[in-house]
């Protein structure tokens, strides 16, 4: 089985979000970038298929040279090789277009992407990729078993989950649950040394224009101070929620 | 030309989110000088969508659409959009709508923006505001394609009754084969889901152990709320993963979010920040959650929550 794991390179969850150039650009100053958490779960699941079922695992990112440390980290976790499509990712559609080319050229059986990225939260790249390649598609995926080309997957739905039957070629949008948090792989020294020698191929993009354009960014208006209610006066809380906030 | 909206239902009953997307679509239609057509699958009582601004409803009744299937449903909505020559398609932010929308976008060659929180600020060029960076910021995004898809963030627009009437037409698009089929569904039918809930009661590590969740469930019961939890609580196995909210869990956009024994770490707050009113109950007055909350009680959850339950019961009894 040939697996491709799509890696989104995102600001660390503790990052302060600021903008520059008249609020038109995300300010990367002082921001630590990491593998998108949803993709980490997918990558760890891919390592399981590699170890237990002899799958090969490549990772891919669509982005500039600054994303290479993130791809190296994925190699250190255990991926066999990495691909970077050398273009700035500007919207979900154009990213999916680039990825579709990589998927078709590489003949991948299983593509593991994340349910959504934690930066732009589009939740669209894997679905668009499925639409473009015609592969089967399951998102919010919290369980995945492959036997030959037969697949059983579990999808989280609002208020529960459902088990689906499908087959390769398949694209999933993965998330926590695909593996347990405690099973996430952290690169060790040996992995880091080996990652330096693993192939990281840079390929040039195909023509794929964006369909959406972020013209400006805003930060939420500063919040007013919290209204404190005495622990002995819970009647007041009920009254505030009813009369002032009007939520009960 | 029209604005097309996909209205979801469950066991035939239209969801609240369906009424919200129709209300939103009506605002877009007014801005663009056109009307709203809704498409619904196996739903009952669809005339009621008229009240929220739909002029026409395309109703699909088909047994092969009994289970939600992203590919089949995306085709239904795409066919409806083509029939109506829709310029804008509006969907909700439910798990199912987010599943089908990217497929729809490829099918219609339409630019898609998710997590939209307001009516377009401009229709030429078509510009919408969406949340980004897990609610830490907003982006104003232009959609440059001819057909546009807007994914509306749940609870961000609200229901607007316009008192109109909708005509209902049968619609039978051709449904493609799909390589994905549902084997089983495991869903608590007696509980409100986090995505649909107007009120969410959430517990953190401050509650000490799973045996103490009785009062959280009771509080949720009194309020008709969904229950949720912080990440460590689900990691420790005190509560199911499906209740984990935050940046790496489920997003919450309820009207009221009550956090009990949750410190308010940045990753937690990011996921729940778009809730309208936030209440925190915590023993530590320095807990960061107090900076993000509208109302706060510095106190022991084991004393405050039972009192709150009692007062709410009394409140409900006197307002019944
Ligand atoms: C300077 C700059 C400007 C940008 N401006 C915009 C903008 O205006 N609008 C916008 O939507 N985005 C913008 N992006 C973000 C862009 O990098 C995103 O990768 C892309 O938009 C997809 O984001 P998403 O949230 O839709 O992904 P999602 O669909 O939420 O991602 C789901 C999964 O798809 C995969 N994936 C996503 N992106 C990539 C990628 N680049 N490479 C490999 N796999 C990936 C991952 O597995 C991820 O978990 C910008 C980025 C930069 C650096
Ligand atoms: C990459 C990453 C992603 C993450 N994603 C998420 C996420 O999506 N969601 C999430 O929740 N977290 C997330 N976290 C974890 C986050 O950083 C915090 O560790 C977590 O939110 C803390 O959970 P908590 O508030 O329940 O526990 P604690 O931080 O331990 O807080 C417990 C609180 O309970 C209070 N307390 C104690 N006793 C009582 C009492 N008797 N009555 C009332 N209050 C009491 C304490 O004062 C304290 O404030 C993430 C972390 C990382 C690194």
TrEMBL record, chain A:
Residues 23-212 form the Electron transfer flavoprotein alpha/beta-subunit N-terminal domain. Coiled coil: none annotated. SUPFAM superfamilies: Adenine nucleotide alpha hydrolases-like. GO terms for cellular component: cytosol. Pfam families: ETF. GO terms for molecular function: electron transfer activity. Gene3D superfamilies: HUPs. It comes from the Bacteria. SMART domains: ETF. Keywords: Electron transport, Transport. Belongs to the ETF beta-subunit/FixA family. This is Electron transfer flavoprotein subunit beta. It comes from Winogradskyella endarachnes.
Automatic annotation (TrEMBL), chain B:
Transmembrane segments: none annotated. The keyword Coiled coil does not apply. FAD binds at residues 205, 261-268, 282. Pfam families: ETF, ETF_alpha. Binds 1 FAD per dimer. It comes from the Bacteria. Keywords: Electron transport, FAD, Flavoprotein, Transport. Coiled coil: none annotated. One of its GO terms (biological process) is fatty acid beta-oxidation using acyl-CoA dehydrogenase. The keyword Flavoprotein applies. Its cofactor is FAD. SUPFAM superfamilies: Adenine nucleotide alpha hydrolases-like, DHS-like NAD/FAD-binding domain. Gene3D superfamilies: HUPs, TPP-binding domain. GO terms for molecular function: electron transfer activity; flavin adenine dinucleotide binding. Residues 3-182 form the Electron transfer flavoprotein alpha/beta-subunit N-terminal domain. Belongs to the ETF alpha-subunit/FixB family. This is Electron transfer flavoprotein subunit alpha/FixB family protein. It comes from Winogradskyella endarachnes. The lineage of its organism: Bacteria, Pseudomonadati, Bacteroidota, Flavobacteriia, Flavobacteriales.
């Amino acid at each position: 089985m040939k697996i491709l794991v799509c890696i989104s390179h995102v600001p660390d969850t503790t990052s302060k979000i600021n903008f520059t150039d008249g609020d038109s650009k995300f300010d990367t100053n002082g921001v630590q970038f990491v593998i998108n958490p949803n993709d980490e779960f997918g990558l760890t699941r891919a390592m399981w298929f590699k170890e237990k079922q002899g799958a090969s695992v490549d990772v891919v990112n669509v982005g500039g040279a600054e994303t290479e440390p993130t791809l190296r980290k994925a190699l250190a976790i255990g991926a066999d090789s990495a691909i970077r499509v050398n273009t700035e990712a500007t919207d979900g559609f154009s990213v999916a277009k680039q990825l579709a080319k990589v998927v078709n050229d590489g003949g991948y059986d299983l593509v593991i992407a994340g349910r959504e990225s934690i930066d732009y939260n589009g939740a669209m790249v894997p679905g668009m990729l499925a639409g473009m390649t015609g592969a089967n598609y399951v998102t919010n995926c919290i369980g995945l078993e492959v036997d030959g080309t037969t697949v059983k997957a579990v999808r989280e739905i609002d208020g529960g989950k459902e088990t689906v039957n499908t087959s390769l070629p398949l694209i999933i949008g993965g998330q926590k649950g695909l593996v347990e948090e405690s099973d996430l792989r952290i690169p060790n020294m040996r992995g880091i040394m080996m990652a330096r020698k693993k192939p990281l191929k840079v390929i040039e993009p195909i023509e794929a224009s964006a369909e959406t354009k972020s013209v400006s960014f805003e930060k939420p208006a500063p919040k007013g101070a919290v209204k404190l209610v005495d622990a002995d006066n819970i009647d007041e809380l009920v009254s505030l929620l009813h009369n002032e906030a009007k939520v009960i | 030309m029209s604005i097309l909206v996909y209205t979801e239902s469950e066991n035939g009953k239209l969801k609240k989110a369906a009424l919200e997307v129709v209300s939103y679509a009506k605002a877009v239609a007014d801005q663009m000088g056109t009307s709203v057509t809704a498409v619904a699958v196996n739903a009952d009582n669809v005339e009621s969508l008229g009240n929220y601004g739909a002029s026409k409803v395309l109703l699909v009744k088909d047994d092969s659409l009994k289970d939600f299937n992203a590919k089949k449903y995306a085709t239904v909505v795409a066919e409806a959009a083509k029939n109506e020559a829709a310029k804008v398609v509006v969907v909700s932010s439910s798990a199912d709508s987010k599943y089908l929308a990217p497929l729809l976008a490829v099918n219609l060659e339409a630019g898609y923006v998710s997590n939209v929180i307001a009516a377009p600020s401009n229709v030429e060029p078509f510009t919408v505001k969406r949340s980004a960076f897990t609610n830490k910021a907003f982006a104003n995004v232009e959609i440059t394609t001819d057909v546009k898809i807007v994914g509306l963030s749940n609870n961000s627009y609200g229901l607007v009754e316009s008192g109109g009437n909708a005509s209902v037409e049968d619609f039978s698009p051709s449904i493609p084969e799909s390589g994905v089929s549902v084997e089983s569904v495991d869903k608590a039918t007696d509980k409100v889901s986090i995505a649909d809930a107007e009120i969410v009661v959430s517990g953190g590590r401050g509650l000490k152990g799973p045996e103490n969740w009785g009062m959280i469930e009771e509080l949720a019961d009194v309020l008709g709320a969904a229950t949720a939890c912080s990440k460590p609580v689900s990691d420790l196995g005190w509560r199911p993963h499906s209740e984990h909210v935050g940046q790496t869990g489920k997003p919450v956009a309820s009207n009221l979010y009550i956090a009990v024994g949750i410190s308010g770490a940045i990753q937690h707050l990011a996921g729940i920040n778009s809730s309208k009113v936030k209440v925190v109950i915590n023993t530590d007055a320095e807990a960061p959650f107090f900076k993000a909350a509208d109302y706060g009680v510095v106190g022991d959850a084991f004393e405050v929550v039972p009192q709150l339950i009692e007062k709410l019961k009394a409140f409900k009894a006197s307002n019944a």
